[in-house]
Amino acid sequence: MAEQQIPTAADVGSMYDQSTDLLSEVMGGNIHLGYWRSDDDDATVAEATDTLTDMVADRLALSPGLRVLDIGCGSGKPAVHIAGGREVHVTGVTISAQQAEVAAARPEVGDGSGQVAFRQADGMDLPFDDGHFDRVYAIESFLHMSDRAKAIAEATRVLRPGGMLVTANPYQEGELDARGTEIVAANRRLFQIPPIGDADEYVAHMEKAGLEVVEVLDIGENVRRSHTLAAAAIRQAKETFDDAFSEQLTEAADIIERFGDLPQIGYGIIAARKA
């Protein structure tokens, strides 16, 4: 099989420029997976994605007045959720011009605690001074970075000493067979993802950047339902588009569902502290 091309930041931005509205609709306003506590948990997608946001926020050890950076802010909903619920100020950055425009139109934009700010920026080259933020988080954004070591080093650079970095990302656990390799390759093409990597890769990058990893939480089985529900919602949404785009959405839904069914695809929250 030919080696897949590594997506550039522009590739990722373009993908989200085109897909943010649909993904936000499918995922309850957020653009990340949801967390269900058990098979019997009847939470909606919106509730489950907010729960995952809260799990990240809990590990940031927030207190009122702190300055927080959201790397890969998507539509801005997680930033608004965290800022309003924890009385902190959240600055969100995204590589997507469309996402930055949508997020910046939110009524919660402002300079005070409980408010948010957004701008277009590359997570691998952050436009902030060293130690500018008290806390940093990244939900499913390092996944897209072509140089994850650099992205994590940048997140560490703008974090003050003693501050927390928390990430949430899918990753690979174990070897894939031929079918699994094909499914992962298709998902990487669909969402502009470099090689997925594993949890140890993220930990190694954090330690090299000077962070102390304090928690690695595997929640792969708790988020797996997201893929099935997202695929179903996309199949329903395709009825509103023309035949050509409807066919593309059908293919995308199939890829998402098959990817989520792979037992080798895990998901973890990693929390680390800057010395």
TrEMBL record:
The UniProt record lists the keyword Disulfide bond: no
MF-aspect GO terms: methyltransferase activity
Is Membrane given among the entry's keywords? no
Q: Which UniProt keywords apply?
A: Methyltransferase, S-adenosyl-L-methionine, Transferase
One matching Pfam family is Methyltransf_11
Q: Which SUPFAM superfamilies match?
A: S-adenosyl-L-methionine-dependent methyltransferases
**Could you tell me which SMART domains the record lists for this protein?**
PKS_MT
Residues covered by the Polyketide synthase-like methyltransferase domain: 23-275
**InterPro entries with a match to the protein in the record:** Erg6_SMT_methyltransf, MeTfrase_dom, Methyltransf_11, SAM-dependent_MTases_sf
User: What GO terms describe the biological role, i.e. biological process, of this protein?
Assistant: methylation
UniProt protein name: Methyltransferase domain-containing protein
Q: Please report the organism this UniProt entry assigns to the protein.
A: Streptomyces sirii
